[in-house]
UniProtKB/TrEMBL annotation:
<comment type="function">
    <text>Catalyzes oxygen-dependent 5-hydroxyuridine (ho5U) modification at position 34 in tRNAs.</text>
</comment>
<dbReference type="Pfam" id="PF17773">
    <property type="entry name" value="UPF0176_N"/>
</dbReference>
<keyword id="KW-0560">Oxidoreductase</keyword>
<protein>
    <recommendedName>
        <fullName>tRNA uridine(34) hydroxylase</fullName>
        <ecNumber>1.14.-.-</ecNumber>
    </recommendedName>
</protein>
<comment type="similarity">
    <text>Belongs to the TrhO family.</text>
</comment>
<dbReference type="Pfam" id="PF00581">
    <property type="entry name" value="Rhodanese"/>
</dbReference>
<feature type="domain" description="Rhodanese">
    <location>
        <begin position="126"/>
        <end position="220"/>
    </location>
</feature>
<dbReference type="InterPro" id="IPR001763">
    <property type="entry name" value="Rhodanese-like_dom"/>
</dbReference>
<dbReference type="InterPro" id="IPR036873">
    <property type="entry name" value="Rhodanese-like_dom_sf"/>
</dbReference>
<dbReference type="InterPro" id="IPR020936">
    <property type="entry name" value="TrhO"/>
</dbReference>
<keyword id="KW-0819">tRNA processing</keyword>
<dbReference type="InterPro" id="IPR040503">
    <property type="entry name" value="TRHO_N"/>
</dbReference>
């Protein structure tokens, strides 16, 4: 069996997120889905895997069903496949933030950077006046990144604001292009930089995964593998499964 994997997120007002945990868990369980879902007042974030028709039903419920009542009408969805079930169980957890930064001024529902489609990304990062910034953790960067990208050398995303305060300057870094695995960390990071007075902040829409899905390897400026937080460990161009030898971290 080939499993369908769905990575998704959206920043949206979900004040009743606590009440939604059990209905969402039960819905996923009925579909025999496994994976991890985070719910917070600021939105939803997760990755689940299962049979193709089950994943389709899950995505339809999030975007068009009664559970979220149309609040997830701009859900970022990315699909890939796995030869074996990439998750051991189903987890639906309540969190303060769906991606932890710890900056109340970084609110992606109010402002985010300019989205750049995968097809336009190469041209943007080739410009000499663009600072290309990898917002992921150091061990992820070590597995693969874009040519010329700056590694913030952080152990967790929560350290990004300290990196920005110490090493980024709105007067010096006039144009910043950032990227992450699926796009969610860049939503928070770009909101944080804009709140600090940076003028031009861009981020790769759909993240590295969308880029690897859409851009042919011959045209790619990506080097290495993209770490994913499941048993597949890493994906390459075309979202093909790659090396199994790297440790996982959640």
């Amino acid at each position: 069996m080939i499993y369908k994997v769905c990575a998704f997120y959206q920043f949206a007002a979900v004040p009743d997120y606590r009440e939604l945990r059990e209905p969402l868990r039960a819905f996923c369980a009925d579909l025999s889905l496994k994976g991890s879902i985070l719910l917070a007042e600021e939105g939803i974030n997760g990755t689940v895997a299962g049979a193709g028709e089950a994943i389709d039903a899950f995505a339809h419920e999030l975007t068009h069903g009664d559970m979220f009542s149309g609040r997830l009408n701009n859900l970022e969805l990315k699909y890939s496949t796995a030869e074996a079930m990439p998750f051991g169980r189903l987890k639906v957890r309540l969190k303060k933030e769906i991606v932890t930064l710890g900056d109340v001024a970084a609110d992606p529902t109010r402002q985010v950077g300019t989205y750049v489609d995968a097809t336009e990304w190469n041209a943007l990062i080739a410009s000499p006046d663009t600072l290309v910034l990898d917002t992921r953790n150091a061990f992820e960067v070590a597995m693969g990144t874009f040519e010329g990208a700056v590694d913030p050398e952080i152990k967790s995303f929560g350290e990004f604001k300290d990196f920005a305060a110490e090493r980024l300057d709105p007067a010096k870094h006039r144009r910043i292009a950032m990227f992450c695995t699926g796009g969610i960390r860049c939503e928070k990071a770009s909101a944080h930089l804009l709140a600090r007075g940076f003028a031009e902040v861009y981020h790769l829409k759909g993240g590295i995964l969308k880029y690897l899905e859409q851009i042919p390897e011959a045209q790619s400026r990506w080097r290495g593998e993209c770490f994913v937080f499941d048993e597949r460990v890493a994906l390459g161009h075309g979202l093909r499964e790659r090396d199994k030898g790297h440790p996982r971290d959640e």
